[in-house]
User: Fold this.
Amino acid sequence: MKANGWKHWLGCALLATTLAACSSGPVRRVSEPAARIQQLTVNADGSWTAQLRIENYSSIPMRFDRVELALQAGGHDAGTLQTAPALDIGPESADVVEVRMTPSAAAKLAAADALAAARALPYLINGTVTATPEEARKSRQFEVEYRSSLNPAPGLPGVLR
Assistant:
């Protein structure tokens, strides 16, 4: 009878430990977000409209309050992509915001050359993204850097993707 009592006590302890481990709920992880240019449109007035894709890699929703990214296009400083989107993005999701900017003359020429020659335009963005995790009182600033290239979109004049 003592052996059965010991097994019963061990079973209850194991059950209690398992239930205690489950009671804390899912892990709430805040991860560094990412940003990249999804599309760049060269407007008739010489300005650019960038569709900026913001990616939330956290396991909780985040509110993206501010984006400030220096842009280099074709190896030239183009200017700064700045916006205050006040955008809520769910866990492990992404959304797109449009940012209009006036690029430098050298960057304009690099984009025009890439479009005319139907070749890629390399770019680099780096700066900060300010976001607030769900239920947090304080926003956090995240460093972002992304390097890629954009190619002319067939049939869409002035558009690089």
About this structure: The chain has a mean pLDDT of 91. The CA atoms of residues 48 and 110 lie 13 Å apart. The chain has one domain: 33-160.
